[in-house]
Amino acid sequence: MTNLPFSKVRRSGSTVYLSGEVGVGSDGKVPHGIEAQTRNCLETIKSTLASEGLDLSHVLSCTCYLTDPADFSAFNAVYAQYFSDPLPVRTTIGCQLMIDAKVEITVIAEA
């Protein structure tokens, strides 16, 4: 995609802000299921952070958007596999997303 009206990554000093990621796979499609979508979101976030010289240990805060509260437990199980102590702070919100996806995650990281 080009000409998007936002930045995918924004750096201010040592703080790095990432736009929200949905669970789009390498084929450009959103897979079925919260687990696969969560994994794709976090893998994309890892890749974006790596392009900034960072990794998930640099994440200070995550905001997670779920379209179905019933998916919380499965989402949380996958999410927990990606982060270790000190864990980032997190807010999880139930909402409707602008595309047909179950989850969107945005992060703030510190270099």
Beta-sheet strand percentage? 25-35%
Distance between the amino and carboxyl termini:
27 Å
CATH class call: Alpha Beta
H/E element sequence? EEEHEHEE
Q: Which range best describes the helical content: under 10%, 10-25%, 25-40%, 40-55%, 55-70% or over 70%?
A: 10-25%
The count of helical stretches stands at 2
Rg, Å, rounded: 13 Å
Would you tell me the structural class of the helices and strands? alpha+beta
| CATH fold title | 60s Ribosomal Protein L30, Chain: A
Kindly state the number of beta strands. 6
What is the name of the CATH superfamily? RutC-like
Mean pLDDT: 95
CATH architecture field: 2-Layer Sandwich
The shape, in one word, is: globular
| Main sheet: strands, sense, barrel | 6 strands, mixed
Low-confidence stretches: none
Total individual domains: 1
Q: What do these coordinates show?
A:
With 111 residues, the protein is an alpha+beta fold. It has one domain (9-110): 2-Layer Sandwich (60s Ribosomal Protein L30, Chain: A), CATH 3.30.1330. It contains two helices and six strands; from the N terminus they run E-E-E-H-E-H-E-E. A hairpin with a 2-residue loop joins strand 1 (9-12) and strand 2. Helix 1 runs parallel beside helix 2 (72-80). The protein is globular and about 40 Å long. The mean pLDDT is 95.
